[in-house]
Write a structure and sequence with these properties.
Elements lengths: L5 H15 L4 H15 L6 H48 L8
Length: 101
């Protein structure tokens, strides 16, 4: 059985979350590379600042897309809850004899 460090598990979790948020694999790799560069003691030059600005814009776009997706999912949950409630009530009232979960 394979064993992962805590840091590796955090990275795997982040990769899965970013993938679910709509990031492409190459974007995720770039974000990890950039994160390592940001944490290093090297100074940022103007080119790096432009890259950071571009990445900030990408992250902001994905953030907004994720928020919209959450809203759509919440609407789906409400619809499913109503359907479930109607089915439970129909079963209780005997309108759907023979129907099981």
């Amino acid at each position: 059985m394979r064993s992962f460090s805590e840091k590796n598990l955090e990275q795997i979790h982040m990769i899965l979350q970013l993938k679910e948020a709509g990031f492409l694999l190459k974007e995720i790799v770039f974000l990890f590379t950039l994160d390592d560069a940001i944490q290093s003691p090297m100074c940022l030059n103007l080119k790096d600042e432009q890259v950071l600005t571009d990445v900030k814009d990408l992250v902001f776009t994905k953030l907004n897309l994720t928020r919209k997706k959450i809203i759509r999912m919440q609407e789906s949950v409400k619809i499913l809850e109503k359907m479930h409630s109607k089915l439970v009530n129909a079963l209780k009232s005997g309108k759907m004899e023979g129907y099981t979960k």
